[in-house]
Amino acid sequence: MSRELDAADLSGPRVSRRTAAKLFGAAGITSLAGCTSGGDGDEEPAVGDVDEDTLAGGRLTAGWFLGEVGDLYPAHISVGQYFQISANIFNGLVTLNEDIEIVGDLATDWTVSDDGLRYEFELRDDVTFHNGEEFSAEDVAYTITHNIETDAPQASRLADLEPPSEGGVEVIDEYTVALNFESPNAATLAHLTRGPGRVGAVINQTALEEMGRDQYSLEPVGTGAFEVREHEVGSHIYLDAHEDYHETDEEGNPLPYLDGVDIEMIPEPGTIVNALQAGDIDFANLVPLENVDEVEGNPDIEISGVLGNGWLGFAMNHEREPFDDPDVRRGLAKAVNNEALAQNAYFGYAEPATGVFGPLPEWVARPNEEKDQTQAYDPEEAEDLLSGTEMMETDGELQIMQTSENLRAARTIVNQLSEIGVDIELDQVTDSTYWERYANGDYDMTVSGSVQKPDPEESVWNFYRLSDVDGVWNWNNYESQEAHDLLGEQRATPDLEERAAILHELEDLLIRDVADAYIVHSEDVTGYRSDVHGFTHIPSFLRNFHNVWLEE
Fold first, then answer.
1. Residue 462 buriedness (CB in 10 A; 0-12 / 13-18 / 19+)
2. Is 10 helix (H, G, I), strand (E, B) or coil?
3. Of 33, 34, 329, 437, which residue is the least packed, with the fewest Cβ within 10 Å?
4. Cα–Cα distance measured from residue 451 to residue 235, given in angstroms and rounded to the nearest whole number
5. pLDDT averaged over the chain?
């Protein structure tokens, strides 16, 4: 049975949950979403039952499990925790609601041509930027054109767009804009969402030109519910409510409810959990998985966990010896016991990975036995593959670089490799050092991967396209023309069954080549105090605060 999505399915003003389930596997995602607490199970109060004076005001104090946020310019963001913040500062053309439906953000409606080559968006006429300038179709055109012409990392999401100077971005009138593609792109709407999409998050030309790229990345001007008042890198980001924000709730009350959000950088697991339990912070963007059981017993804290389509891998730098040898990579992959790692490093809040694609979305998921078994745990075969190679003679010279976020996973890998005689060292670094070295290829090994995204392409495209074309996060230096071509082929395939077959072929290739040694699909877990209301945990790694309110 064909599951091709036609133009009517993808046109606005809302892409239904049924269509979204086909496109993103959303039905499966929400079935695994959960919220637990140690409290008495009281239901979340409905906005309509709370008076406006109670809803409005107050500042949320949020802890971010990160040492620093180096970039809030959406099209340049490569770290999931960064776009959790930027999604509160910017709007996209479309967004995801709590039912995992694609709905308008800055767009009120849109149509898709029958051939999938033209997307025409009708825009809101009541939107202002944080600097007071009015939003129009010209801002959409400037954003996309600027991102493409300056080779912003996220511009690869629109690689199939006609050149903007040749009609790729067409301003029809003040509040109508069209995107014209050279070939269909099955993930276009996902790429244009607020947060995960990033390439379509609308920037302000005046502010960018006045501030310059570096400063704009720290204190950007957008149209979102909150604006940046102060950003001290490595310490905090203070957001104030955008007084002229355009959205209201279902009762007509202006959003956001909060006066602001004060974000504190807290990179130590114990510190962020202690701060949440003590009430020093109201919200933790990530609860370290080793501390979830401890926090769940607190009656004053709500815990929400979602298993989506993110993945984590044991990454090896293919340009460095001995990782340029496929047999070395295969041997190391086979030495890692993913089942034990999921329990020991992620405390059961993860599923062992057998490839890059996990249990969601359902249309691309498949049983483990159907996948290539090159990376299946087999310590004896691992020893055979590594025997006589440089890996058996390293004496700790090779290192696995890691920040605090996946430190336990890195330690577990070090210990598991030692069981077959491989001696590597752990190199713990700060967040800023990590991302600089990783992007520049200045590392041996690490644990890294992709956070949850609406479409499975978003978890592989930037990682495995050729690095000199549009593989902007291909920091493992995995160079495969076959993988590159398969990624392009699936993007142009609207039928989900045909597209899934291509993605399965790609996944088996990535497993055989050990582009990464896939270890787990971990849950996205967040926590907040019981007097925080209105937060919706959308399974796309988002932390949206425009509907949040505080109970005094």
1. buried
2. helix
3. 34
4. 24
5. 90
